[in-house]
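Hi, here's the filled form for the chain we discussed.

Project: internal
Contact: R.S.
Residues: 292
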Amino acid sequence: MSKIRNKNAKIILDLIVILLGCILAALAIECFLIPNTILDGGITGVSIIIHKVFKIPLSFLIIILNIPFVYIGYRNLGKQFVIRTVYSMIMFSVFLDFFKNIESFTSENLLAIVYGGGLLGIGVGLVIRYGGCVDGTESVAIVISKKLNFSVGQIVLLFNLIVFTIAGFIFGFNRAMYSLLTYIITFKVIDFVADGIDKAKAAMIITDKGTSLSEEIYKKLGRTTTTLKGKGLLSGEKAILYCVLTRMEIFELKRIVEEMDESAFVTINDISDIIGNHIKSTNKKTKMKQLH
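And the returned structure, exactly as it came back:
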């Protein structure tokens, strides 16, 4: 009973922090960036361009344009990730609407870039750290990175450069350069708050259910695990699973482990570099063949 109570309390706390992140991100967009025609990256940036050109409500565009990306996230990152993502996007849209009629905090470009970018980074970083997502670009980038030899960060950066280039033709290249500078600040703040957009992580899982847990991780995340044999002083024979993954996949990995083996011991560490080819999933037909 206490486990259920603690789990529910944790979920509520996570949702409160995600809500706070959405409020900060929406405040940064509506009170710093949009009034000065400075764009965010990703789908939010695309939404701002359409909003500026066609006067369609930004909150509506955020929801509509992210629907395909939410579906892709559901197929590849799991149900819990999507539930928190949908919650994040709805709250983000609600507060975009709430802040849209508030007067801009500054008309100085430098102040808008620094404070808007920093505030946006804190907000998005909090959302991501607690399992949500206000922009579907990263979830798609994770899927693409599993198929191609590009990191999540490289894919997101390429997408954003395309967005800023389009913005340059529409609003002028000064605006595009301001937007790129804001994106760099936002990215670095996210890196500080949520450990980086695609910094590699190494998970080590000590478990009694090595085979079934490996299969579930591969099925849900497309990540292979290396299995080692271990022996605890008191617990006896154990399987030790080693897996390399991205920050966005950590929440889903924790959920998988909690559901399948509550007694498992998990450590997650940063990786400064990766040498060699990291095996990623190709198609569902070959997944289980490679495991057996």
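Let me know if anything looks off before we file it.
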